[in-house]
Design goal:
Layout lengths: L10 E4 L14 E5 L13 H4 L5 E4 L16 H15 L4 E6 L2 H11 L4 E7 L12 H19 L3 H4 L1 H4 L4 H10 L3 H20 L12 E6 L8 H17 L3 E6 L6 H4 L1 H13 L10
Parallel strand pairs: 2-3, 2-4, 4-5, 5-6, 6-7
Antiparallel strand pairs: 1-3
Helix pairs in contact: 2-3, 4-8
Length: 290
Amino acid sequence: MPTRDGRKLHALVLPGPHESGLGAASLPTVVFEAGAAATRSSWALVQPAVGTWTRAIVYDRAGLGRSPADPTSRTMRRMADDLTDLLDHFGPGPYVLVGHSAGGPLVRLAAADRLDRIRGLVLVDPSDEGADILFSPLFRRAERAAIAVNLLLARLRLLGVVYRSAAAPLPEEARLDMKRDGFSVGLVKAHRAQARTFLDELATFRNTPPALGDVPITLISGALPGNGMNQSTRHAANASHAASAAKSPHGKHVIALNSGHYVPLTDPALIAEEIRLLATSPPPEKPGDA
């Protein structure tokens, strides 16, 4: 699908059934946004489950997976604009946007651009401006170091070996896709370009968060440490998620008991069910509806 400036983004679409007992005509399209260095394949256990009852779309951000690199700076605003272009391409909505990790702030920003077509958001262990640790000098140094190591591993063709266990739960086709285009030098460079401004932009959400009105929001937190998070940072992340859910007029906080950070790989059925519950619930009434 095209972007407004003539680039191309690769998307994979499951059209959903023509009819279903859930009222298919009124069901929203579900669009998934992956984490910082993840491709569409990271949703391979969730998208098919959602695709049994409605249209479900995954895509690769520029420079990730099968989408060509973007020659312009990969700010959060530009990435959200790409998502907005994708939604424009696939129709007027309504949409449920699902974002994992760094994809959480991106779907919030894109949703705020056109609230009229957003049925709701499902944020899966999202990067949250309420988590102070994200803005500490130690975290930033650790992130830069991790990206540098991953770039070296990609150049040595060892990145896929290191992260092989992460891809293990995926279906065979998705594992092959990830092996082919999920551990490349280009992907790590795209991650590095995103990371240059991401945390600074996320910090601005503390004073001026995306205005989401009464859009229903479900936040799903992992319960377990690991994946770079110790018990203390896990507790802090979950506290920030709970606080964000409480701020929303229609917020919900859910704990994925089997998961650390990579909830789409370890609790896919939970995510799929929370998407279904949100998507099939009546939209909140607006003033004057009654």
